[in-house]
Amino acid sequence: MKSSVWSKRTAKDGRWFTNSASQIFIIVTVLIALVLGILADVVLGLFGPYASVLIISSMIMALIFILRQDELAAALILAVHLNVDWYLGFRVISPAMTLVLLCFCYIGRSSLRPWVKPRYLWLWLLFLGLTIIPAIRGATNLYDTLFYYPNVIFGALLMYWMGTIIARSPASIRLFFRIFSFYCMLVAIHTIIQNRTGIFLFGTARNDSYIALMANNHLPGNLFVARAGSFLIDPDWAGTFFAMAIFIPIGLFVESSSPLAKVLYLTEAVLISLALLFTYSAGSWLAASVAAVIFLVLLGGMGYRAQFLICLSAAAIVVLIGFSSHLNLLLQHASDPVELSSRVGAWQTGLRVISAFPLTGIGLGGLAYLVNAAPYMVPEQLILLAHPHNSYLEWAAMAGLPVLFVFVAILVLNMRWALHNWIVADPRSRCLFAAGLAAIIALSFNSFSVNAWTLPPLSAIGWVILGILSSPLLSKSQVGHTTEGKHDKELASAKAG
């Protein structure tokens, strides 16, 4: 009988402490993080004052991975994607973290924490293959090289796969949504402080100068009214973020049975709605309105719908009573003919580029589009742009129509599976699916007016949520739960007979 801890297998719950390969992987990961941090700080000076933060954060994340807190790890990776990779400009840390998490999940797979491949992997591989040439053509500088393929393309598969793995049951969805909604509330508070005080907490000199130069951060014709962008910088991107995020606490509010929890989720929803208002993003409000209709339909019960309307009414009352002047400014911005004309002009330019390069596009890169789309620019587009302000036109213009078709196919087919999981879920869990699907609808609809699905921090959130909702693990767990419930009923009736 062997007693050595090195000979023991992984425990049924997927814990790491008795598996030799897992222990080696953990040690190697921590050592690599330490070595890279020391090299960056002492030798290269690459991260400067952030090197010590990088070392500490890497060790904390390694501990979270060891304890198999997958839902917490996924939410933290999304936070790193926005606050570190996007805001601070590191670009590739969150994809690397996702790869490490997936490796941990594979090595620590068990009956309770199974490993599963993403749905339609062949479509994903086709998507990765078709975008290689456009990504190479558009990689004219380091920014575009790191922007598209590592984040928007390959990073999309990683984020989607991570969502697929962590969604083992509705309880996993609930936990992830709770953590992520709290993070969204913190970003909302940051946005509100920025709007009400003019102070950008945790600001950097680079982003302060960028914000000062951006005319889009003020309402057209009213330079005294600032549009808040928070860590996403651009108010339209921040608006998209909050249009998605607002449904997560609302779904938790409707689903929860605890009065204290309901107060917390309602507070989160109100703060996120205020942050959305302060972006003055008309497209985001329209996207949120469309998604709200979908959310109401998917709730599937009059009691749940009544709770949603109560939550919606509370947010509306706060906005109408306390911030009516801001709402008027939003309506003025939405009806501005110059703004609408310039946006339509950007779309028309994108369509002309697509007609000229329907199969190959002009290259996945902002600079490539800026230069190569100039000959096709229509008069309504007032300035040169790095993208056509529409994610679907962006895929077609930069990478070709085949890439757009594959992207839409991946999106639609996975939404179909998400609806399937919604159908087999119990009524309470359907509230969570409704919230996630509403967030995806808001992102997809908003992508018609801004590059939402092709912006790394926004697309990462969308792919994680879509991976969670369409996960094959959910179908298995919910079908098993339903079968077990029927079996229990049959036994009870047999005993009664």
Order of helices and strands: HHHHHHHHHEEHHHHHHHHHHHHH
Which class best fits the helix and strand makeup?
mainly alpha
Shape: globular
Question: How would you state the average pLDDT, rounded?
Answer: 84
Could you tell me the number of beta strands?
2
> What separation lies between the terminal Cα atoms?
49 Å
H/I helix tally: 22
Strand order of the largest sheet: 1-2
Strand content range? under 5%
Largest sheet: 2 strands, antiparallel
Radius of gyration: 23 Å
Number of domains: 2
Q: Could you list the spans in which at least 5 consecutive residues all have pLDDT below 50? A: 1-19, 40-46, 480-497
Tell me the quaternary state: single chain
Question: What's the helical proportion of residues?
Answer: over 70%
Sum up the structure in keywords:
497 residues, mainly alpha, two-stranded antiparallel ribbon, 2 strands, globular, disordered N terminus, disordered C terminus
Structure description:
By secondary structure, this protein is mainly α. The protein folds into two domains: 100 residues; 363 residues, no CATH class. 73% of the residues lie in helices and 1% in strands. It has 22 helices and two strands. α10 packs parallel to α13, α16 runs parallel beside α18 and α20 runs antiparallel to α21. The longest helix is centred in the middle third of the chain and has 28 residues. The termini are far apart. The N terminus and C terminus are likely disordered.
